[in-house]
Amino acid sequence: MTTAPWQALLDWWFGTSLDANEVATQRNALWFGKSACQDVDSENRFGGLVRQALDGGLQEWERESEPQSWLALILLLDQLPRMIFRDSPRAYAGDARAQRLVRQGLAAGFDRQLPRIERVFVYIVLEHAEDLTSQNEAVRLYEALQAESSDSEKVLFAGYLAYARKHQVVIERFGRFPHRNAILGRESTAEEAVFLTEPGSRF
Fold it and tell me: Hey, what's the torsion of the CAs at 48, 79, 6, 134, to 10 degrees?
């Protein structure tokens, strides 16, 4: 039996456990840590696929009509560039395509076919968007996810919801993420400069 070309990425990102808390415990450092070793590892494993995705390739992963290929392509566009191209403009180069893919997949109900812990990385694409409509939608989706979660998962998904709300507040206030300004060559306003000195101002 031939393994789907996106399966290695999904296995690396999520592992094989079916328990959301266990997956999060095992993978949290990979997902949200900042490690040069992990960044290099992601480049070595999937750098070629990331570049194909950023250049508009892997369109067959969109047409597969499978939630798993859709999710994998989203990861290649949204999560892995933030590792491989950390602190450079190319870290955000896949965001527009990722956001389009997410909206198409949401309309088709792809997210509902994925485990809850995997849906976190669909909705996070909207959380990364520098517009309030997307932020509001991300919060709504995380609220629904938390409401659906089992009793043992409530704390885990409440944490993801709280983080989405933090992003929402920043976009509501500034219309963009000030911590990206230096990377993208944008000049910070005086208010943004003060904000960036505060704890928790950088994601």
Answer: -130
